Amino acid sequence: MSQRTLWEQGTRPGRQVATLASAATLVVVLGHLLLTRQLSIVFDVAFVIFCVAAALAVRPREFFVVGVLPPMLMLAAMVTVALVARGAIAEAGDGLIQAVVSGLAHDAGALVVGYGLTLVILALRQMAAQKRLPAQTAQRRRLAPVVRPENSPQH
Fold first, then answer.
1. What is the pLDDT of residue 5?
2. Beta bridge partners of 58
3. Percent helix, percent strand, percent coil in the chain, to nearest 5
4. What percentage of the chain reaches a pLDDT higher than 70?
5. How far apart are CA 113 and CA 59, in angstroms?
6. Which parts of 85-155 fold into alpha helices (H)?
7. CA pair distance 117, 112, nearest whole angstrom
8. For 72, what's the count of Cα atoms within 13 Å in the CB-facing half-sphere?
9. Domain ranges in the chain?
């Protein structure tokens, strides 16, 4: 049997991957706010990295969880920032919804890149799994013992 490729390595449950990505994003958001009192390119890069890592870590039958994760992750990050330090993503006097929308608009590039890479990686992993499936089935057939009924003629 051939070595598993990068696209076939993910084995973590979707819920676990989503929880870890959410926790990591929260740590980066809060840590970055404590250090700089604003969100910068550091948050954007971390967000993209977390999206890619989640897409590579999840097991194939739970791709949907990670496929919808980036927008929800970004929304949760912006709501957190709007609640904790509204001035980091909007004017201090802006309302919660306006601050969230401003934050989403400001970090839209990271969302597009993170979401795009997530979907591309999941598609590549799906294609790799589909190519591997016929090979695994053929190998199982070669290794399986041949069972013949007792009355059938043997050639």
1. 57
2. 12
3. 75, 0, 25
4. 79
5. 22
6. 96-106, 108-143
7. 8
8. 10
9. 6-135
